[in-house]
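User: tokens in, sequence out, please.
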């Protein structure tokens, strides 16, 4: 075939772009220092993006960086999904074969979805995390390859990117944290109209501080002059430069075209039409060369030489001469791989393609399709099915296009390119009525979509139905994030089922709607699930029936745990076993195990969940195992066995990361943060919560991480951070689908934050709203901390006048709620005692006898912060009762509580301990040496000399009037002195002040002298 041809159409001099090239080189230096870089390069068509990238790639190669380039195909749904990544990864593998193989080891089957060279992509599990798993593995692959080599990954023409490519790029830009890696993506900015699919991605990436965006502007007149001089190899005429610059408006490609046209003497005949400018050199080619350019323009972004030969039907000599003319005129150029041709600039390709007549376009596509069917080896195997589907579709032949498009949709699904699969299935639905009946009857379902089809028919003998297409499309939309499109499809399907009743199929679509409604914040999905349950009621067991029951049981476990959820889970297990729906059975057993734990039989429930984890790992059901790594440790935590949960959670993090289960990994991190918080390992807890906010693919698991960070911030007294994380959690959870395990902890933070800021009315309102929503059975693990926070807020505000209105009624409502929660295990028994003690404190009725059993209960648990808090409460009660033994015990309790507060940096607890010690005039440091000189105890209390005198008379039992007479001051002044003394001693009355004075041995002789003087 034809090799490269030397031309003089492009300036050999790289003009301008000093700042932009400097930015790219700076990013390369940072990447070489193991600081991953993400850049976007935008500019209008023809402005010089490709030339800048080529110059940068040359500079990067000189610095021993490995440069891998991939380009997007022009029509996303017609090309291979992830096309630019496939091309770039192939180049990376060729450049670093050993490093690439080591980085991909163990994940070849999954990564083959992106790079088919690695082998056959496994059938795998299709779910909403499938694409995310692939993305995580790709990010890890790049980080590993870039551990020892600086890697520059260039993705060109992002404006043509398919949805899967856009999603993967966004994921990489958000998550890359390690490796000597630079990712550079280019796009044509003038193509990004208001509804262009790239526009939302650019807006999202603009908000990331780690992404730098470069906008390439047009040339100045001086730069245009230098470019023209490079093309002409001579200094251009200034008047000619002015003319070209005015007509090109500084666009580098048009400057080049005009300069070349002038050199060839064609300029005088040019019109001002952009299209004419682009086509002028094409029309100057020999007819055979023009014919070849038309064929290549319709074939795709790049077209293989053998495929061109099969379509154009010229003799080999004539074809090569035609190609030589097109390459010599700088219209076509040889591909990087050297096996085909592409237009040197996409603008020329677009102009040639737009110049084709409608019949001419469909005829060319038919020729491409026929040639490819006759000899499938004309194109790479991984692109064959997708290209054939595109050619037949644009040939407007429904009989040929329908089977080809369906085959392409299967390829897209296997690659986890669900958005592209959805687009292809929508094409199939569009073609359905136009295809002959015999063609439709010959079609068969390729595989089953989840539990669909539910009729029990043999797919090998049952013709494909239009509803089957809709089922596949609905699931593809859900998996690919195109939920609005999926909702519309399910709505249409259910309308069709109104005319052709089929309870199982209708129930299946209602389950899909339930999931979609929840995901789109349209509701909690309960109505849709109830409809599905009603449709299958009384029907024989089936996969659909089992799935409906399993989904309903899981929904009830999260929203309304109780007997109904228990019964649904048991029936789901039974039905799934009867019909052999193994995955549904395991999901249902996991749900049932959690419900058994909540019902008061923890060991039976935990063993059930452990067995599910063992079986799912052994059978390779990774998503179910990932869910087990979330639910089993959570069940352990619900009964206070946090220390046992921690190693299981760390194992779960590793497992979920290995298999790319991003949402499950985020939930596991959140649960790990909870466990570490309970165990007093707050620094580790904060790190785990931060991981949860970054890892999750969906909003809710990231919201759980934010909620843990809010909890930590509140305990540390950082109210601003508490409010920020609380808002983030509330936003990510949404308000459409309140789940007790999310809404109750949110309410707890709301109550705690409002109380800390002195907004008692808001704290009460938050609790009442939660109580109105209800505390269903099984939610005690979230209910007790909430009720405790509310009782503590009321007790702390007991002496405030603003707290009195409505106080009695609120405390009654709170006490009633306390009576409804279960305390089946020691942890919640301790919380029940603590909450009731706070309610007594709120009424001023607590004593040391109230708090001693609370402390005893927590001393048996592994929760140091909670123990520190209740020890502080007991110390306060002991000091209120008085007595030397009580004071000694209080000192020790406060020392222990203070040590915990200092270790955890729990400032509110530390401040409370210090205030109580100060009021009681207790020193929490160890006693000084016996030979140390004692300080003046009165001065140590901070009293002035006058206050010293007043305190001596108060200790002698004098009234304010008697003190005034004794010291020759007014009674009002005496009263002020007494008030100051009470405040400094931290006591509430004159009797307590006298007791402090006597206990400290003050004024042993002076009161008697005063009495004698009286």
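Assistant: Sequence out:
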């Amino acid at each position: 075939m034809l090799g490269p041809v030397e031309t003089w159409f492009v300036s050999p001099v790289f003009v301008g772009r000093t700042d932009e090239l400097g930015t790219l080189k700076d990013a390369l230096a940072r990447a070489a220092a193991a600081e991953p870089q993400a850049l976007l390069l935008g500019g209008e068509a023809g402005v010089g993006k490709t030339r800048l990238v080529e110059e940068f790639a040359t500079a990067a190669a000189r610095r021993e960086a490995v440069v891998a380039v991939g380009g997007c195909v022009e029509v996303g749904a017609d090309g291979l999904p992830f096309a630019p990544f496939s091309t770039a990864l192939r180049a990376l593998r060729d450049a670093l074969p050993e490093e690439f193989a080591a980085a991909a080891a163990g994940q070849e089957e999954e990564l083959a979805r992106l790079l088919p060279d690695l082998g056959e992509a496994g059938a795998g599990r299709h779910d909403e995390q499938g694409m995310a798993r692939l993305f995580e593995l790709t990010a890890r692959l790049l980080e590993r390859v870039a551990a020892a080599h600086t890697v520059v990954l260039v993705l060109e023409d992002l404006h043509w990117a398919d949805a899967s490519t856009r999603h993967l790029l966004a994921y990489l830009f958000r998550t890359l944290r390690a490796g000597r890696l630079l990712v550079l993506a280019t796009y044509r900015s003038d193509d990004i109209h208001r509804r262009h699919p790239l526009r939302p991605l650019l807006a999202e990436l603009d908000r990331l501080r780690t992404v730098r965006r470069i906008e390439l502007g047009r040339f100045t007149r001086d730069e245009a002059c230098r470019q023209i001089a490079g093309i002409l190899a001579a200094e251009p005429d200034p008047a000619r430069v002015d003319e070209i610059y005015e007509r090109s408006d500084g666009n580098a490609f048009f400057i080049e075209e005009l300069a070349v046209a002038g050199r060839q003497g064609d300029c005088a005949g040019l019109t001002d039409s952009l299209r004419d400018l682009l086509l002028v050199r094409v029309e100057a080619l020999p007819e055979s060369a023009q014919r070849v350019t038309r064929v290549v323009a319709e074939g795709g972004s790049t077209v293989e030489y053998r495929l061109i030969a099969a379509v154009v039907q010229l003799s080999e000599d004539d074809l090569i001469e035609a190609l030589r003319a097109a390459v010599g005129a700088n219209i076509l150029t040889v591909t990087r791989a050297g096996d085909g041709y592409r237009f040197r600039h996409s603008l020329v390709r677009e102009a040639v393609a737009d110049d084709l007549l409608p019949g001419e376009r469909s005829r060319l596509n038919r020729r491409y399709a026929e040639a490819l069917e006759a000899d499938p080896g004309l194109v790479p195997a991984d692109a064959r099915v997708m290209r054939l589907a595109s050619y037949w579709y644009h040939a407007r032949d429904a009989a040929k296009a329908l089977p080809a498009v369906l085959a392409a949709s299967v390829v897209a699904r296997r690659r986890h390119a669900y958005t592209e699969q959805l687009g292809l299935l929508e094409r199939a639905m569009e073609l359905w009525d136009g295809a002959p009946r015999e063609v439709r009857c010959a079609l068969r379902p390729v595989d089953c979509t989840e539990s669909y089809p539910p009729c029990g028919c043999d797919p090998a003998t049952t013709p494909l139905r239009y509803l089957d297409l809709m089922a596949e499309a609905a699931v593809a939309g859900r998996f690919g994030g195109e939920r609005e499109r999926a909702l519309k499809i399910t709505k249409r399907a259910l309308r069709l089922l109104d005319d052709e009743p089929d309870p199982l199929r209708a129930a299946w679509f209602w389950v899909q709607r339930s999931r979609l409604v929840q995901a789109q914040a349209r509701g909690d999905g309960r109505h849709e699930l109830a409809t599905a349950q009603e449709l299958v009621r009384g029907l024989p067991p089936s996969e659909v029936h089992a799935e409906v029951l399993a989904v309903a049981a899981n929904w009830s476990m999260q929203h309304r745990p109780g007997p109904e959820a228990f019964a649904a889970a048991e029936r789901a297990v039974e039905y799934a076993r009867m019909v052999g729906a193994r995955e549904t059975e395991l999901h249902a057993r996991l749900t049932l195990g959690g419900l058994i734990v909540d019902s008061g039989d923890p060991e039976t429930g935990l063993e059930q969940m452990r067995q599910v984890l063992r079986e799912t790992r052994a059978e390779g059901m990774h998503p179910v195992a990932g869910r087990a790594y979330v639910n089993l440790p959570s069940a352990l935590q619900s009964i206070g066995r946090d220390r046992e949960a921690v190693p299981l959670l760390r194992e779960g993090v590793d497992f979920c990361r290995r298999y790319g289960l991003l949402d499950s990994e985020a939930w596991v991190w959140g649960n790990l943060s909870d466990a570490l918080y309970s165990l007093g390992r707050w620094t580790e807890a904060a790190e785990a919560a931060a991981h949860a906010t970054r890892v999750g693919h969906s909003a809710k698991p990231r919201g759980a991480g934010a909620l843990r960070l809010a909890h930590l911030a509140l305990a540390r007294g950082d109210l601003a951070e508490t409010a920020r994380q609380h808002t983030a959690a509330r936003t990510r959870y949404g308000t459409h689908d309140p789940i007790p395990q999310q809404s109750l902890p949110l309410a707890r933070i709301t109550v705690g934050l409002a109380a800390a800021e002195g907004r008692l009315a808001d704290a009460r309102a938050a609790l009442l709203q939660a109580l109105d929503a209800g505390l269903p059975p099984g939610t005690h693990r979230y209910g007790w901390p909430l009720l405790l926070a509310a009782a503590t807020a009321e007790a702390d505000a007991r002496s405030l006048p603003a707290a009195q209105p409505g106080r009695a009624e609120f405390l009654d409502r709170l006490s009633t709620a306390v009576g409804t929660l279960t305390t089946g295990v020691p942890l919640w028994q301790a919380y029940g005692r603590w909450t009731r003690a706070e309610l007594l404190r709120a009424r001023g009725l607590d004593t040391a006898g109230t708090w001693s059993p609370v402390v005893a209960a927590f001393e048996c648990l592994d929760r140091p912060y909670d123990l520190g808090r209740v020890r502080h409460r007991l110390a306060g009660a002991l000091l209120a009762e008085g007595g030397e033994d009580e004071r000694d015990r209080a000192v020790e309790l406060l020392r222990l509580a203070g040590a915990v507060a200092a270790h955890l940096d729990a400032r509110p607890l530390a401040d409370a301990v210090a205030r109580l010690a100060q009021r009681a005039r207790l020193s929490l440091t160890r006693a000084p040496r016996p030979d140390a000189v004692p300080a003046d105890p009165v001065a140590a209390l901070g009293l002035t000399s006058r206050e010293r005198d007043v305190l001596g008379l108060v200790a002698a039992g004098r009234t304010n009037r008697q003190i005034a007479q004794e010291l020759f001051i007014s009674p009002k002044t005496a009263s002020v002195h007494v008030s100051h003394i009470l405040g400094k001693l931290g006591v509430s009355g004159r009797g307590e002040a006298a007791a402090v004075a006597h206990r400290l041995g003050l004024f042993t002789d002076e009161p008697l002298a005063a009495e004698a003087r009286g």
